[in-house]
C-alpha cells in the first residue's frame, strides 16, 4: 500500500507529517511513500531529501490523495481535502472529533477511515504514539525560549566584574507535560523555578526537576485520579481563592510566568488576573500556553504579543510547536510511524485496522461507514 503526506494548507502551519527519516521506517513496514512537492520545505526537509530516502515526490495534493491508500497529515482536513477522500482510504491526523463533528460526518460519508492522533488513549503502551504529549513538550520548551527572547536579562545569576546579577525567577502554573518541559528548560538555563498544580501528586516530579513546588495550605477533597484519567478536575471556589491569593503574593517577585493550566472539555481557568499583572515588575513576561482555550491570563490575546500598561509582555501564541517545525515534525512523524507499526503487524505494507486493539479502537473516529467516536474506555492501563 501507499502512504502519502500532502502539504499542510492551514495558514502558518509549518509542520509536516512525514520526514525522510520516518519514510525510511515506513518503508521497512512494507509501504511505498509519497510526499507532495514542497510539503517539507517549511520544516527544512527538501524534496531532494525525500527522494534520497526513497520517497516519490508527487506534484499536487490532488494527485497525492488519488494515489495514496493512507494519507497522513498534521492538521484536521479542510473542505478541499475532505472532497478528495474516498471509500476505504485511511486518513490520519489531529482531528479533535468532539469539536469537529461536521468534519467527521463528512469524512464518514466519503467512506474514509479516520484515525485521530489526539484520541490515542493515554495508556503506557501507547506513549510512543502520544502526539499530544510530543507537541506539549515542544510548546513548554518553546515558551521558555519566547520568554527569554522578550526578557531583557539573564536567566542565570552571575557574579561578574561589572556587577552581580540575580537569577531570574520563573513561575510555572500547571505541571502537566508542557509545564514540566518548561520547568526543565528554565532550570537548565539557571533560573529559580517555582511551579504549582492542583494535582498534588506532581510535587515530586516538580522537585525532581530542580524546581520548588508552591505549596497551598488548604485541604481540598481530592478527586480520584482514575476518574479523571490523570487529568485535573475543576477546583472548589475556596481552593481557587486560596490559589489566587498565593499568586498575588508571588506576582511582584516573578520575572517570568508560564501558564499551562487546562481542564479537559472546559475553557482554560482564569488564574493570572489583571491585578496580578499590575503587581509584576516592568520587563516581566507572561507566556500563556492556554491561549487557544481562552487563556489562563485575563489579558492574553490569542496569537498576539501585547504589553500591559505597566510594561509586562504577555504572549498568547498558539503555534509554538509550529515555531520549531523541524523538531515537531520529527517527533510527530515518529508518533505516526509507531501508529503505522501497530496497524501493520505483519510488516507487509497492508493495513490491519484491528478494532479489537484498544489503542487503534480508541483513536478511530470513523470506520467502514460508521462513526466510532466516542470510543469505549480502554480495557488496560
Ligand atoms: P493538560 O494539558 O490537560 O493540563 C495541564 C496541567 O494543568 C495539568 O497538570 C493540570 O493538573 C493543570 N491544572 C488544571 N487546572 C489547574 C489550576 N487551576 N491550577 C494549576 N494547574 C492546573 O494536561 P496534560 O499535560 O495533557 O497531562 C496531564 C496528565 O495526564 C499528566 O501529568 C499525566 O498524569 C497524564 N498523562 C499520561 C500519559 C500516559 O501516557 N500515561 C501521557 C500524557 C499525560
From TrEMBL:
Span of domain Alanine dehydrogenase/pyridine nucleotide transhydrogenase N-terminal: 4-139
Keyword list, A-Z: Cell inner membrane, Cell membrane, Membrane, NAD, NADP, Nucleotide-binding, Translocase, Transmembrane, Transmembrane helix
Membrane topology per record: Multi-pass membrane protein
Domain Alanine dehydrogenase/pyridine nucleotide transhydrogenase NAD(H)-binding as annotated: residue spans: 148-316
Subcellular location: Cell inner membrane
TM helices/strands, residue ranges: 170-196
Catalytic activities: NAD(+) + NADPH + H(+)(in) = NADH + NADP(+) + H(+)(out)
Major subcellular location class: membrane
Keyword match Translocase: yes
EC number(s) given by UniProt: 7.1.1.1
Taxonomy, superkingdom: Bacteria
Family statement: Belongs to the AlaDH/PNT family.
Function: The transhydrogenation between NADH and NADP is coupled to respiration and ATP hydrolysis and functions as a proton pump across the membrane.
Name the UniProt record assigns to this protein: NAD(P) transhydrogenase subunit alpha
UniProt lineage: Bacteria, Pseudomonadati, Pseudomonadota, Alphaproteobacteria, Rhodobacterales
Amino acid at each position: 500500500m501507499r502512504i502519502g503526506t500532502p502539504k499542510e494548507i492551514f495558514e502558518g502551519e509549518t509542520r509536516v507529517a512525514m520526514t525522510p527519516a520516518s519514510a525510511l521506517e515506513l518503508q521497512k513496514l512494507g509501504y511505498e511513500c509519497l510526499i507532495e512537492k514542497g510539503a517539507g520545505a517549511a520544516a527544512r526537509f527538501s524534496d531532494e531529501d525525500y527522494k534520497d530516502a526513497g520517497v516519490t515526490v508527487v506534484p499536487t495534493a490532488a494527485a497525492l490523495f488519488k494515489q495514496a491508500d493512507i494519507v497522513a497529515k498534521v492538521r484536521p482536513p479542510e473542505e478541499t481535502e475532505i472532497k478528495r477522500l474516498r471509500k476505504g482510504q485511511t486518513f490520519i491526523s489531529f482531528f479533535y472529533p468532539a469539536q469537529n463533528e461536521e468534519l467527521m460526518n463528512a469524512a464518514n460519508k466519503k467512506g474514509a477511515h479516520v484515525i485521530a492522533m489526539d484520541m490515542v488513549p493515554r495508556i503506557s503502551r501507547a506513549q510512543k504514539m502520544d502526539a499530544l504529549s510530543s507537541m506539549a513538550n515542544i510548546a513548554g520548551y518553546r515558551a521558555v525560549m519566547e520568554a527569554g527572547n522578550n526578557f531583557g536579562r539573564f536567566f542565570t545569576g552571575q557574579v561578574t566584574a561589572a556587577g552581580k546579577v540575580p537569577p531570574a525567577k520563573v513561575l510555572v502554573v500547571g505541571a502537566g507535560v508542557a509545564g514540566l518541559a518548561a520547568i526543565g528548560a528554565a532550570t537548565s538555563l539557571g533560573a529559580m523555578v517555582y511551579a504549582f498544580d492542583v494535582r498534588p501528586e506532581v510535587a515530586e516530579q516538580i522537585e525532581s526537576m530542580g524546581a520548588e513546588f508552591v505549596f497551598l495550605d488548604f485541604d481540598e477533597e481530592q478527586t480520584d485520579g482514575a476518574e479523571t484519567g490523570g487529568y485535573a478536575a475543576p477546583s472548589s471556589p475556596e481552593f481557587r481563592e486560596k490559589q489566587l491569593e498565593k499568586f498575588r503574593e508571588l506576582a511582584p517577585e516573578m520575572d517570568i510566568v508560564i501558564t499551562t493550566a487546562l481542564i479537559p472539555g472546559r475553557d482554560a481557568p482564569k488564574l493570572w488576573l489583571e491585578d496580578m499583572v499590575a503587581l509584576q515588575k516592568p520587563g516581566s513576561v507572561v507566556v500563556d500556553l492556554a491561549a487557544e482555550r481562552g487563556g489562563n491570563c485575563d489579558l492574553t490575546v490569542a496569537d498576539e504579543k501585547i504589553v500591559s500598561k505597566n510594561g509586562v509582555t504577555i504572549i498568547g501564541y498558539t503555534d509554538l510547536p509550529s515555531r520549531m517545525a523541524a523538531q515537531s515534525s520529527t517527533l510527530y512523524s515518529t508518533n505516526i510511524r509507531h501508529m503505522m507499526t501497530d496497524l501493520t503487524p505483519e510488516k507487509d505494507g497492508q493495513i490491519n485496522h484491528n478494532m479489537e486493539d484498544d489503542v487503534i479502537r480508541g483513536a478511530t473516529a470513523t470506520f467502514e461507514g460508521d462513526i466510532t467516536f466516542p470510543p469505549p474506555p480502554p480495557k488496560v492501563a
